[in-house]
UniProtKB/TrEMBL annotation, chain A:
<feature type="domain" description="Rieske">
    <location>
        <begin position="4"/>
        <end position="104"/>
    </location>
</feature>
<dbReference type="GO" id="GO:0046872">
    <property type="term" value="F:metal ion binding"/>
</dbReference>
<keyword id="KW-0560">Oxidoreductase</keyword>
<dbReference type="Pfam" id="PF00355">
    <property type="entry name" value="Rieske"/>
</dbReference>
<comment type="similarity">
    <text>Belongs to the bacterial ring-hydroxylating dioxygenase ferredoxin component family.</text>
</comment>
<dbReference type="GO" id="GO:0051213">
    <property type="term" value="F:dioxygenase activity"/>
</dbReference>
<keyword id="KW-0479">Metal-binding</keyword>
<keyword id="KW-0001">2Fe-2S</keyword>
<dbReference type="GO" id="GO:0051537">
    <property type="term" value="F:2 iron, 2 sulfur cluster binding"/>
</dbReference>
Automatic annotation (TrEMBL), chain B:
<dbReference type="Pfam" id="PF01458">
    <property type="entry name" value="SUFBD_core"/>
</dbReference>
<dbReference type="InterPro" id="IPR055346">
    <property type="entry name" value="Fe-S_cluster_assembly_SufBD"/>
</dbReference>
<dbReference type="InterPro" id="IPR045595">
    <property type="entry name" value="SufBD_N"/>
</dbReference>
<protein>
    <submittedName>
        <fullName>FeS cluster assembly protein SufB</fullName>
    </submittedName>
</protein>
<dbReference type="GO" id="GO:0016226">
    <property type="term" value="P:iron-sulfur cluster assembly"/>
</dbReference>
<feature type="domain" description="SUF system FeS cluster assembly SufBD core">
    <location>
        <begin position="177"/>
        <end position="407"/>
    </location>
</feature>
<dbReference type="InterPro" id="IPR000825">
    <property type="entry name" value="SUF_FeS_clus_asmbl_SufBD_core"/>
</dbReference>
<feature type="domain" description="SUF system FeS cluster assembly SufBD N-terminal">
    <location>
        <begin position="103"/>
        <end position="169"/>
    </location>
</feature>
<dbReference type="Pfam" id="PF19295">
    <property type="entry name" value="SufBD_N"/>
</dbReference>
Length: 115, 438
């Protein structure tokens, strides 16, 4: 199992916001919305767009982040593709806050393929 | 030797580099300064540009790398020269030449073959003339500017008119140490009727050290010249690889250019072939194998500037794990390029459901009497083929390896140099894993 990596103090991530962070050489978008932190692969599974440049939609029943290129939306909680043109989930990662620091642990599929 | 700044490519590191190279001709120092100035005033490419839309370099941090020399020459074994009788060879580590040899009879015939840094001092006029051609624009983008300002390594080959080099020439570039960088320029100039074979390859000394390669390749073929050029990129999977490569093929000249792309964390390569004289011919072969989280992006460009020229491009890629390839190919035919015969094809074999291949062929034709075609395929391994092989005693992995080898056979058949064919086949065979259930 991967380790948790510190990505910065909570004060670096205002609510609401989304920001690119690097975790073990993987581009991750760290999202702070409605009091919760989320971490997703910073890549749209449709066309590879950077989700960290997209808009947050936190008013909906399922909070999402939208790809800036074609508008595909991904659920913050699990990375599921909520709207077209994306049909495949982007990878979600575990987040925890301890001592005022935000930590991200990459999902195991990344650990298995980093060579 | 003066030590270069420990890390980064800042102004002080650049000045240290110049201080270390006071023997260089003045025109070259000035050229470096001009390019450095342009570099400082230019931003990195970003994902809003079409060329970079599918290649994310936001995690690339130049200050993590240094162009400092290696502590000791590299020793990782070459693949392409195994069992080959060479006419000359060059070895370099972190962009510094460790060894340079050329058969005496070739030197007597006027052949120049050596590390570019040394040749630029000993044959300044030849190098200045080659640079002045501007085959690769030093201001194309920020990577080209950085390369033009800070290159330390590379190969210079010049073959005089009518000289045929029978034995292949070989050059290997190694990267050693965490944060090592290889900034190099390779220049190949063949005079009218000259012939040569040049094998180039790259290797990392270990599998985990992060590295950077930023290079250019410039090839100029005179009338009726023939070049077989092989470039095998085999860095480790923590190396960033950026390259601008271009060949200008003259009247009745022939170029066979084979690229092997196996390594790199992220590779972004622009490969161009310009057919600048009538009846010129170019065959371009590409073999790509990716695994893990590798991302390889190759932009190819076949530019027909003259009439009666032929170009034939075949790129084949096999992808494992969550790796990704991007191939953007363009055939451009100028109005003068009547009777052009051009072809481009890209085939992708998906060995994992999480791998992704983007294949984007394109045509831009201004002449009205041409034959230009292109094609692209992407698919998975056929389960029936695996079942068939396993029913005859092969293990599943042997079956997959056999199918992958068969997939590449079409491009291997076009490679006329045995050592290259064998090296690519072995390197790919060693990388093939068992196929996950799809």
């Amino acid at each position: 199992m991967n380790d948790f990596h510190s990505v910065g103090p909570t004060t670096d991530f205002p609510d609401p916001s989304s920001q690119l962070v690097e975790v073990d050489e993987i581009a991750v978008v760290l999202i702070h919305a409605a009091g919760h932190f989320y971490a997703l692969d910073d890549v749209c599974t449709h066309d590879g767009g950077p989700l960290s440049d997209g808009d947050l939609c936190v008013e909906e029943a399922t909070p999402t982040i939208a790809c800036p290129r074609h508008g595909a939306q991904f659920a913050l909680a699990d990375g599921a593709a909520v709207t077209m043109p994306a049909t495949k989930a982007t990878q979600a990662h575990e987040v925890k806050v301890e001592g005022g620091q935000v930590y991200v642990r990459l999902c195991d599929s990344h650990a298995n393929t980093r060579k | 030797m003066t030590a270069i700044a420990e890390s980064g490519f800042d102004t002080s590191a650049f000045e240290a580099l110049l201080n270390d190279r006071t023997a260089e001709p003045k025109w070259l120092s000035q050229r470096r300064r001009d390019s450095w100035k342009a570099f400082e005033q230019t931003a990195w490419p970003n994902g809003k540009e079409e060329e970079w839309m599918r290649t994310d370099i936001r995690l690339f941090k130049l200050d993590k790398f240094s162009s400092a020399p290696a502590a000791q020459p590299g020793s990782a074994a070459a693949l392409l020269s195994h069992g080959v009788e060479l006419g000359g060879r060059i070895e370099s580590t972190n962009g510094r030449t460790d060894l340079s040899e050329l058969d005496a009879d070739l030197a007597e015939q006027g052949v120049i073959f050596g590390g570019l840094s040394q040749v630029a001092i000993e044959h300044s006029d030849a190098v200045e003339k080659a640079f002045a051609r501007g085959v690769v624009s030093p201001t194309y983008d920020r990577f080209a500017m950085l390369n033009d300002a800070c290159w330390t390594g590379g190969v210079f080959l010049q073959v005089p008119k009518g000289v045929h080099i029978e034995k292949p020439l070989h050059a290997i570039s190694r990267l050693g140490g965490e944060g090592a960088a290889d900034l190099s320029k390779t220049v190949v100039v063949l005079g009218d009727g000259a012939e040569a074979t040049l094998l180039m390859e790259t290797l990392s000394e270990d599998a985990i050290a992060a590295g950077l390669h930023n290079g250019t390749i410039e090839i100029v073929l005179g009338r009726g010249a023939k070049l077989r050029f092989v470039s095998l990129q085999n860095w480790n999977n923590r190396t960033w690889h950026f390259a601008h490569q271009k060949a200008c093929v003259g009247r009745e000249a022939q170029l066979q250019w084979t690229i092997g792309a196996l390594g790199a964390r992220l590779a972004k390569v622009n490969q161009q072939v310009a057919l600048v004289g009538p009846d010129a011919e170019a065959q371009v072969n590409g073999v790509m194998f990716t695994q893990g989280k590798q991302h390889l992006c190759y932009n190819t460009h076949q530019h027909h500037e003259a009439a009666y020229c032929r170009s034939d491009l075949l790129y084949k890629a096999a992808l494992q794990d969550q790796s990704r390839t991007v191939w953007r190919g363009m055939i451009k035919v100028d109005e003068a390029g009547q009777r052009t015969d051009a072809y481009q094809r890209n085939d992708n074999l998906m060995l994992s459901k999480d791998a992704r291949a983007d294949s984007i062929p394109g045509l831009e034709i201004e002449a009205d009497d041409v034959r230009c075609t292109h094609g692209s395929t992407s698919g998975r391994v056929d389960d029936h083929q695996i079942f068939y092989a396993m029913a005859r005693g092969f293990t599943r992995q042997e079956a997959v390896r056999m199918i992958v080898t068969g997939f590449f056979q079409q491009v291997f058949d076009r490679i006329t140099i045995d050592s290259v064919r064998e090296a690519l086949g072995e390197a790919i065979g060693a990388r093939v894993q068992d196929l996950p259930n799809q």
